[in-house]
Amino acid sequence: MTQPRSPSQPPIAQERVDDLIDSLVERGWYVGRDFLPDALCQSLLAELDDKTRRDALVAAGIGRGDQHHLRRDIRGDAIYWLDRESQAQRRYLETMAELQQALNQALFLGLFEYEAHLARYPPGSFYRRHLDSFQGRANRIVSTVGYLTPDWPADGGGEMVIYSPDDDREVARVLPEAGTLVCFMAETIPHEVLPTHRPRASIAGWFRRNASLGGLVDPAR
Predict the structure, then answer these.
(1) 64 to each of 22, 60, 68, 105, 145, how far by Cα in Å?
(2) Neighbours of 92 (CB within 10 A)
(3) Residue 114: half-sphere exposure toward Cβ, Cα within 13 Å
(4) Which of 116, 108, 93 is nearest to 24 (CA)?
(5) Cut 0.85: pTM above it
(6) Parallel, antiparallel or unpaired: strands 212-213 and 216-217
(7) Is 69 in a helix, a strand, or coil?
(8) Could you read off the pLDDT of 137-194 as tens digits, one per residue?
(9) Euclidean distance between CA atoms 180 and 196, whole angstroms
(10) How far apart are the first and last CA of the chain?
(11) Which end of the chain is more exposed for a tag (fewer CB within 10 A), N or C?
(12) What confidence score (pLDDT) does residue 122 get?
């Protein structure tokens, strides 16, 4: 469902949306610098910093449901799932709802909802190469990663590496600069987060299709 847009939240420029959709069709992934507004990134970063100080983050695991477990040798971030409690969260979710509508109209993906979490990678942490969804076994269809840390140095580490779905070839390496949005097909695009040398802040999310198991609608996460 598309959320009503707040008066202070500008729409995504149509040319950015068109570029994103064209890139997903042509190669399965998109990288857009300065896609997210500076003010929104600053607000989300302040919220993440506050939650870090209040020890409100939880260690991220791998797998879902009964298969979920911690593997610090695979990923080392700590996360907080968005719950719409703040204006910054609501503004971000409005932007993603707009993008969801555009993806459904252009690509007929049947995206039903969006789930997201704030993530903090402490120095030395990483996330090994993986897929966000296994084909035919889950309902995460399109992944997004937005970066929140300003003035990220070239030697700061923490880059996202995107790999070709056909071989082991690296096709992109993305600095986690504030405002950059990465979007890719969850079932087909392998990626990883290289070890970071400084605290790294991001917001990761997934557009999902509706699914059910045992007569129950499949819940987020």
Answers:
(1) 31, 11, 5, 29, 19
(2) 26
(3) 28
(4) 108
(5) yes
(6) antiparallel
(7) strand
(8) 568 999 999 999 999 999 999 999 999 999 989 999 999 999 999 999 999 999 999 9
(9) 17
(10) 18
(11) N
(12) 97
